[in-house]
């Protein structure tokens, strides 16, 4: 029985993505984003469960990628489509390219042996959280011009998922500061961002601010990652 536990958790991730798609098409974007976040929780624990139970295998790897493409590829793409459609009509279907980028990124990840402790290219959960937060903004902010800008940015994020730029993972290698300082800096900054967004949501009575915290956290992730890459390159050159 224990060998099926990680796969059951992975299926929960996939179901969260499927529900998110349905909610997005129903116009319930905040609920849709909530299921993406819940799917991310399941995605975190399925790998942990497989390692703890020592039942990792190729089937689990393939299932994980399929589930991730639904939850972190198709679901945010449909959310962006639903968010932009009132402004630009069926042109908003271009947002669905995000699902294709995510599928290619996940397939590439499965055969790339360099990505054991970090990522080459933007991870699909980070991309999904970034767009999930944006699509929970008030519909009034989406003019045709804004919609086309967002579609252009979605292509940039698609490129980031496939490019050769290194991105750090959240895996804590060691509790020592020198071994995991990037993760600690990111987590501390993320906590501050979340607190500020929650306080602003309470202050103005706007629940979308809580969800938009997801986008703000990923922007912080981009900043920390860029600085980390710059300092790493400088250290290598100094040696």
Verbal overview:
The structure is a single chain. With 239 residues, this protein is mainly α. It has 2 domains: 2-128 and 140-167, Up-down Bundle (Four Helix Bundle (Hemerythrin (Met), subunit A)), CATH 1.20.120.1760; 170-239, no CATH class. Helices cover 76% and strands 3% of the residues. Helix 2 packs antiparallel against helix 3 (58-88) and helix 3 runs parallel beside helix 5 (124-134).
List the helices and strands and how they pair.
Blueprint: H1 5-25, H2 29-53, H3 58-88, H4 97-111, E1 118-120, H5 124-134, H6 144-162, E2 166-168, H7 177-204, H8 208-238
Antiparallel strand pairs: 1-2
Helix pairs in contact: 1-2, 1-3, 2-3, 2-5, 3-4, 3-5, 4-6, 5-8, 7-8
